[in-house]
Design brief:
This protein is mainly alpha-helical. It has 16 helices and 1 strand. The protein has helices at 2-11, 24-33, 37-63, 80-84, 93-104, 113-130, 138-155, 171-197, 203-217, 221-231, 244-269, 273-281, 286-301, 303-316, 328-336, 345-378, and one strand at residues 326-327.
Length: 379
């Protein structure tokens, strides 16, 4: 056998031998970025542009930036220092002067500690929900208790808290309220609609679900919000009025549920038929089979599009301006309406972009971690 191997090795020419695999950091760097002259040229060009723009941005945002400005005797900001560095450095003093308006909207100044606590509660609720060790029945109680506390803090009127009308809510707390309640209420509705669209033995239910999905998906969110704000009160009994925030929330829930339903239906259709047959063989009823066997696997398959819908809803809350509600983006625009700070709108938009990016990136990274965990379990 050794003779055969030696003769076989002798038949292989040196130019036919496989290339040597170079390991380590430098080996991977060379294989990915400098594997050919075209790859090397592209890497060097992009590296030069990134470094040039990166250093220029750092010089603008940090090196020559103005962080605060003095105030006149009348309380107006003196923006002479910002105008002196315009085009060279950033004027972050606009954020220092307007951050309360941007984050909390028209919420009473003396009571803004309440929406600040609500923001912290929302973030804590997201973190707890993301930890796998809290995935128990008690998590529903945590959500109920946290959202109740948030409602009490925002409304007030009890425990010595001043009552604050909903038309004074705004900024980041309102964005979190609309997106969180929108997802929490739209998700179970979407599951029911997705199951209804597949209910071949209930043609009336299937028809209603199909009409609902096609009607909602056929119009933009602005139209749904406008209908919820203007047309919905016309169908209410006389004397019954629903606040515009609740009407906007209802429109967001109905709109999101239609899109989520189609995503969930795609996961249900991707399930192998054998899973349904195995659940039937175990003697499980329809709802036990769906909740214990089918839905967990179907939702695992559609994590990326679900998270994409969540991120889209978080950003689409800015459309509630059509019904006179000021979320985070719209309170930023209100802050820029001040003639003193109008020339420095770039800084405000960057501040808003950083907030949106932080929340959206956190959702994206969490979804990727879920995908890896579920994929490892499946393997």
């Amino acid at each position: 056998m050794s003779g055969i191997s030696a003769s076989a090795e002798g038949l292989v020419r040196p130019d036919e031998l496989p290339p040597a695999v170079v390991g380590g950091f430098w080996g991977r760097l060379r294989a990915k970025l400098f594997s050919s002259w075209w790859s090397t040229a592209t890497t060097l060009l992009l590296g030069y542009l990134i470094l040039r723009w990166g250093f220029a941005f750092l010089a603008w945002s940090l090196g020559h930036a103005v962080w605060s400005v003095p105030y006149t005797a009348q309380g107006a900001p003196d923006t002479a220092a910002c105008h002196a560095v315009k085009g060279i450095g950033a004027c972050w003093a606009v954020i220092a002067d307007k951050y309360r308006l941007i984050l909390f909207g028209r919420f009473p100044f003396a009571e803004q500690w309440r929406p600040a606590i609500c923001i912290a509660l929302f973030i804590g609720l997201y973190v707890v929900s993301a930890l796998k060790r809290f995935w128990r029945k008690e998590l529903a109680l945590i959500w109920t208790a946290t959202l109740t506390v948030i409602g009490l803090l925002m409304w007030g009127g009890v425990f010595g808290l001043t009552y604050v009308r909903q038309d004074l809510w705004g900024g980041l707390p309102l964005t979190l309220i609309l997106s969180t309640f929108g997802l929490a209420l739209a998700f179970p509705l979407a599951i029911l609609v997705a199951l209804g669209r597949r209910a071949t033995n209930l043609p009336a239910v299937k028809l209603l679900c199909v009409l609902y999905v096609e009607l909602i998906r056929g119009v933009p969110l602005i139209s749904v919000l406008f209908m919820a704000s203007v047309m919905f009160p016309l169908f209410l009994p006389e004397g019954l009025d629903i606040d515009k925030v609740l009407r906007a929330q209802l429109g967001i829930v109905l709109f999101s549920a239609a899109y989520l339903a189609e995503t969930i239906r795609g996961g249900l259709q991707a399930m192998p038929r054998e899973q349904f047959e195995a659940a039937d063989a175990l003697g499980l009823g329809y709802w036990r089979k769906t909740l214990l066997v089918i839905l967990p696997q179907a939702l695992r398959l559609v994590i990326p599009p679900l998270v994409n819908s969540f991120i889209g809803l978080f950003k689409d809350t800015s459309l509630v301006l059509i019904v006179g509600i000021f979320d985070l983006l719209n309170t930023g625009k209100v802050a820029m309406s001040d003639p003193v700070w109008q020339p420095f709108s770039t800084e405000v938009y960057l501040f808003l972009a950083a907030i949106y990016f932080t929340f959206c990136c956190a959702m994206s990274q969490y979804s990727r971690r879920l995908e890896r965990e579920f994929d490892r379990g499946r393997k």
